[in-house]
Amino acid sequence: MMEMEHYSRGVTFEKFCVLFAGEQFCKSGHSHGPKIRENYIFHFVISGKGVFKTHGKTYNLKANQGFLIGDSTPVFYKADEQEPWHYCWIIFSGKQADAIVEKLGLSPQNPIYTAKAENGIYGKFKEFMRGYESGNEFSVVSDFYALISEFYTSSVSSPQTTTCKEDYLQKAEQYILYHYHSPSLRIGSLASEIGIDRSYLTRLFDNILGISPQEYLLKLRMEKAKTFLQTTSYSVGTIANSVGYPNIDAFSKMFRRVYGCSPSSVRKDKTIEEKGE
Q: Are 80 and 27 in contact (CB under 8 A)?
């Protein structure tokens, strides 16, 4: 039997906003999605198992792991049939949300978190929920930061242990994610922004991801455009402009290059589907 505790009151501070938080014991096979969620949503698995799908990838998760949802790409998650998961979750946004996610070493393209077996995350979450339920906003902000701190220190791959190369790559990916919609985004300016040479940035992408920064940006823009085409009624011109292409002809040319068909055909026939969904 599925049980759920759900607290819907939002708490807003200067730099972040906790929109929802809760805890759920799932039935066998209970699922969500595919859905598009705009705010950051972080789930942490307390016990049991389940599957999480996003960006064409499938992740099999268990206790002491978590997953981040944080962009407009459709996501799907489902409890295991034999050992359905019990998880807690929190939805947050605001100016500091990006920094919090980055500190945890996460992004929508790198969404999986793993904690050490011995951790105090669930206890900190319950403390946070008690303050959240009581309405004491000072307690909420204190307990929220304590919870994030526990996530940080309990991570098996703390951002402190990443190499300089990985750190630069992560910063570049984050920068592209939050500026892909800008027509003026250039790889040279990206390299300057994170403090390295353009040629070094290109080598990082080639060596670690197997593609150039330009190809990474193009892939992200086209994935966003495809999602908008399949899930909204906005015009092709509006979608093109929203992913960094003021010129609709240039956008259509790039879309054909990536997917082999026109943007309008995707909307009409839904010919492109994410693998694994």
A: no
The answer to whether 99 and 107 have CB atoms below 8 angstroms apart is: no
Say whether domain 3-160 belongs to CATH 2.60.120.10.
yes
Sequence ranges of the chain with CATH classification 1.10.10.60: 164-269
Q: What is the pTM of this model?
A: 0.55
- Render pLDDT for 181-226 as a digit per residue (tens, 0 to 9): 999 999 988 988 888 888 989 999 998 899 999 999 999 999 999 9
3-state secondary structure the chain: CCEEEEECCCEECCCCEEEEEEEEECCCCCEEEEECCCCEEEEEEEECEEEEEECCEEEEEECCEEEEECCCCCEEEEECCCCECEEEEEEEECCCHHHHHHHCCCECCECEEEECCCCCHHHHHHHHHHHHHHCCHHHHHHHHHHHHHHHHHHECCCHHHCCHHHHHHHHHHHHHHHHCCCCCCCHHHHHHHHCCCHHHHHHHHHHHCCCCHHHHHHHHHHHHHHHHHHHCCCCHHHHHHHCCCCCHHHHHHHHHHHHCCCHHHHHHHCCCCCCCC
> In whole angstroms, what is the distance from residue 215 CA to residue 201 CA?
13
CATH fold of 164-269, please? Arc Repressor Mutant, subunit A (1.10.10)
pLDDT digits (tens, 9 = 90+) for 103-140: 888 888 889 999 998 899 999 999 888 877 766 677 77
